[in-house]
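Weekly sync, protein design subgroup
Attendees: M.S., D.O., the rotation student, P.L. (late)

Item 1: inverse folding check
M.S. brought a backbone from last month's batch and wanted to see whether the design step gives back something sensible before we order anything. D.O. pointed out we never logged the input encoding, so this time it goes straight into the notes. Structure tokens as presented (174 positions):
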């Protein structure tokens, strides 16, 4: 579950959360594991482990905020890939949608995620060029996009890798 965990607060023992996942245990005076929530390697048999250190770090995070303008998006065009973090409802303001569509046509990939931690967006409302990060955390989506762009150059391969659950970064129910 390591690639799905987010730190929510600084100090308490329960500072971490796995959005969309069941806790694998609880820390307190003692440690209590929940074996039914631990993902066993047998469930990943179809994945053949292969180490690759090729990363393309030319990836940008675009957080949709009230002040984000089309011009601000156009200034980031030198990046090779983008993770777009939408509003919690999964919406993108109409004023920036044309700039994002244009970006998705010229760049190999635009990955869109919503900043709501426990839900995945409804993809019917997004432009065709966007790739769903499903319920990946922002951090997992950024690193996976860097790794994917280091492995693949054509958009079909990028899309296939980004939508494949490689190491548990996408929950089974997403």
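Designed sequence read out in the meeting:
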């Amino acid at each position: 579950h390591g690639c799905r965990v987010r730190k929510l607060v600084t100090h308490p023992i329960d500072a971490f959360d796995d959005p969309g996942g069941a806790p694998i245990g609880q820390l307190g005076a003692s440690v209590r594991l929940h074996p039914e929530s631990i993902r066993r390697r047998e469930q990943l048999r179809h994945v053949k482990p292969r180490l690759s250190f090729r990363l393309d770090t030319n990836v940008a995070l675009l957080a949709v905020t009230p002040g984000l303008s089309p011009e601000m998006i156009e200034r980031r065009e030198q990046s090779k890939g983008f993770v777009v973090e939408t509003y919690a409802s999964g919406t993108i303001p109409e004023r920036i949608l044309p700039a994002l569509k244009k970006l998705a046509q010229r760049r190999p990939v635009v990955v869109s995620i919503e900043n709501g931690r426990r839900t995945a967006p409804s993809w019917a409302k997004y432009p065709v060029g966007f790739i769903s990060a499903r319920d990946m955390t922002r951090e997992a989506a950024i690193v996976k996009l860097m790794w994917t762009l280091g492995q693949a150059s054509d958009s079909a391969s990028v899309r296939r890798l980004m939508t494949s659950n490689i190491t548990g970064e996408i929950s089974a129910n997403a």
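Discussion: The chain has a mean pLDDT of 78. Helices lie at 70-74, 97-106, 138-151, 155-163.
Action: P.L. to compare against the previous round before Friday.
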